[in-house]
Design goal:
By secondary structure, the chain is α+β, with helices and mostly antiparallel strands. The protein has one domain. It has helices spanning about 5-15, 20-25, 65-70, 70-75, 110-120; strands at about 30-35, 40-45, 60, 85-90, 95-100. The strands form two sheets. A three-stranded antiparallel sheet has the order 1-2-3. A hairpin with an 8-residue loop joins strand 4 and strand 5 (about 95-100). The protein is globular and about 45 Å long.
Length: about 130
């Protein structure tokens, strides 16, 4: 999987950071930064196209060591300021492109479907 895509990073962020799928999809380059020597991830609604589920969802959390070892902070630092962190994987293996919201304003529905299909195929789930 292309490391510029949500398909590469979202499963890791969900597993190690406990973030919701849509929170991950709405991350922007400035939401990953170093704070007092610790790399953190900020879940917020401050940017265009960002929203949180409720008031308790606003949080700044340290990045898990596994994500740092995988280079997530370096990837995030290399994205254009203000841009969404991730691109969308092309369906037929083409070049990744920008993520687009669906009719309900959600960015990660396509990723969710791809991930569910991948799990079903890898785990041989038929029902």
């Amino acid at each position: 999987m292309d490391p510029a895509t949500i398909d590469h990073w979202a499963p890791l962020l969900a597993a190690f950071q406990g973030a919701r799928r849509e929170e991950i999809g709405e991350l922007r380059a400035g939401d990953v930064f170093e704070l007092e020597g610790v790399w953190v991830l900020k879940i917020t609604d401050e940017g265009e196209g960002q929203k949180v589920k409720n008031a308790a969802s606003f949080r700044t959390i340290p990045l898990h060591a596994a994500l740092i070892d995988a280079g997530f902070h370096t990837f995030a630092a290399g994205r254009p300021e203000g841009a969404f962190l991730f691109q969308e994987a092309e369906r037929w293996g083409g070049k990744p492109g920008p993520m687009h919201a669906d009719a309900r304003g959600r960015l990660t529905e396509s990723f969710g479907k791809r991930f569910a299909r991948l799990l079903r195929e890898k785990l041989n789930i038929t029902d």
